[in-house]
Write a structure and sequence with these properties.
By secondary structure, this protein is of the alpha/beta class. 50% of the residues lie in helices and 11% in strands. Strands 3-2-1-4-5-6 form a six-stranded parallel beta sheet, with helices on both faces. It binds NADP nicotinamide-adenine-dinucleotide phosphate (NAP).
């Protein structure tokens, strides 16, 4: 790890609905693990401090501020870490600077984006740049993506076992669901519908 890349990962958007769930998970799983260095980031330090306190994050976990609309603050945040885990969304509204900065600087990037149009745009725009820099960009690591990703993996493993080759296509559908959309998910759906309307 280079001298300036002090952290293994930083969670950006730790004050949001999903961000707080990620913080809870980190506290449960990673506190006291000397091999993994992580930190939290958000746009509002007071809010970040209050989340950290309410989730029992110890004082030696650093808190950083960055605004996704402020390129310099985003680049500064990215420069500190080997990987950014961002839960600042809708990504098509707030995600451009952070993903670009990661792609250009060779920093790994993980999100839980559910906005296919934006991801398609970013894959076209940043694939060559990230291959050159060594940045690994991983979209859609959240709840509603994982069942589909793992479903395809399990299914293809079984199909390869039985037929010696993978299926050319796999279709998935959700028949029933419990729970509600989070605020950010509803906003992402709204932003995607507006972007689609503009294109038609
Ligand atoms: N794939 C999945 O399964 C899945 C599941 C849940 C959510 N999501 C996606 O995850 C994203 C977040 O959802 P959520 O419900 O957690 O949203 P949320 O509660 O609205 O949280 C959004 C976060 O982004 C921060 N933020 C907003 N504007 C910012 C800016 N200009 N600079 C820096 N930070 C900024 C907010 O900071 P403040 O607290 O200061 O406002 C907050 O921390 C959405 O895109 C949603 O679609 C995906």
């Amino acid at each position: 790890m280079s001298e300036t890349k002090k952290y293994d990962f930083i969670v950006f958007g730790a004050t949001g609905f999903t961000g707080k769930l990620v913080v809870e998970y980190l506290v449960e799983r990673y506190l006291g693990n000397p091999e993994i260095k992580w930190a939290l980031a958000g746009r509002n330090l007071e809010k970040l401090k209050s989340v950290a306190k309410s989730k029992n994050v110890p004082d030696d976990i650093c808190l950083f501020t960055a605004d996704s609309n402020d390129k310099t603050s985003v680049e500064n945040l990215v420069s500190k870490t080997r990987c950014i885990l961002t839960v600042v969304g809708p990504y098509q509204l707030y995600g451009n600077n952070i993903i670009e900065s990661c792609a250009k600087s060779g920093t790994d990037y993980v999100d839980l984006c559910g906005e296919p149009g934006w991801m398609h745009e970013k894959i076209n725009e940043l694939s060559d740049i990230s291959k050159e820099s060594g940045s690994r960009i991983v979209f859609s690591c959240g709840f509603d993506s994982i069942p589909f990703d793992l479903g395809v993996l399990f299914l293809q493993n079984e199909i390869i076992k039985r037929f010696n080759k993978p299926a050319p296509n796999v279709r998935g559908r959700v028949r029933a669901m419990n729970g509600e959309f989070s605020g950010g998910t509803a906003a992402s759906l709204g932003a995607t519908m507006s972007a689609l309307k503009e294109k038609t």
